[in-house]
Design a protein that fits this description.
The protein contains 15 helices and two strands. The chain is mainly alpha-helical. It has one domain. The N and C termini lie close together (6 Å).
Length: 266
């Protein structure tokens, strides 16, 4: 009931100030000594010089490398999923907010239906976050992560000149991956979230069982697709209100001309 009331309140406010505030809190620097051991409810690089929270994906790789079950980390991530499904992706994630901002750049847009390609997120989660670190004893998702390059790799090299001599081919590969995603983010809504993000993959199944779920009044809905036009991940929500792609931004509820979409009562 509490989360349903929270969702009803969030429908009435603008999302970007919450995203901006979350980005500053997660990267508040001075709170790092207190909060660095807590996995953040969003995709944010642990290596960022101002990061205050731990990256949950980096932490999961660490436990895969040392061959231990990360009960605490899974508990924190699971709590977020149980409460709101992928709501953290829509409201709290700094990298998601960054993608939303880049998409506002006035360029021709590609409106892509994710379809089965969305399953790639689970592949990245299982292979790059789990299996490869477990056997190779190295955090390979972190080695290729565009968010890590943007928030950690580039700032650290710029601020610590001695590290520039140690730059190798992997650094430039990671830079190419970042540049590719930056271009893609300008023309497609949240491509990293939809095709790659392993944290989103963990939260995705919770959409159907979390305390916040959506429902569509089929008698009111005319399938005008206005929901898709305002959706940050290009969904026609009437097709499946609790799809694993939905990031619970609630824009479809706020902007539905027929008021056909609502938060399902718990």
């Amino acid at each position: 009931m509490l989360m349903t009331r929270l969702a009803s309140w969030l429908v009435r406010i603008r999302r970007w100030p919450v995203q901006l505030a979350s980005t500053f809190v997660i990267n508040s620097y001075f709170l790092a000594d207190t909060l660095k051991a807590i996995p953040c409810w969003g995709f944010n690089c642990y290596a960022c010089p101002v990061a205050s929270f731990a990256c949950p994906i980096g932490t999961l790789q660490h436990f895969a490398i040392i061959h231990q079950i990360p009960f605490y980390v899974l508990g924190v991530i699971g709590l977020a999923g149980a409460l709101g499904g992928r709501m953290s992706c829509g409201w709290l994630c700094p990298f998601g907010f960054f993608q939303d901002l880049l998409y506002k750049i006035p360029l021709p847009k590609w409106h892509l239906r994710v379809g089965k390609a969305g399953l790639l997120r689970y592949l990245f989660l299982v292979v790059l976050v789990g299996i490869i670190p477990y056997f190779a004893l190295e955090p390979w998702f972190c080695k290729l992560c565009p968010a890590g390059m943007l928030e950690g790799g580039i700032p650290v090299v710029l601020t610590v000149p001695d590290l520039r001599e140690q730059i190798g081919w992997l650094y430039f590969l990671k830079l190419v991956i970042l540049v590719g995603f930056l271009g893609w983010m300008m023309v497609t809504k949240r491509p990293f979230c939809r095709y790659v993000c392993p944290l989103g993959a963990i939260w995705s199944p919770f959409n159907r069982v979390s305390t916040i779920r959506l429902e569509v009044d089929q008698a009111r809905c005319t399938e005008c697709d206005h929901c898709r036009r305002v959706c940050p991940v290009d969904l026609s929500i009437y097709e499946d209100p609790n799809t694993d792609q939905c990031i619970r931004c609630l824009a479809c509820i706020k902007d539905c001309p027929r008021q056909a979409i609502r938060v399902k009562e718990a």
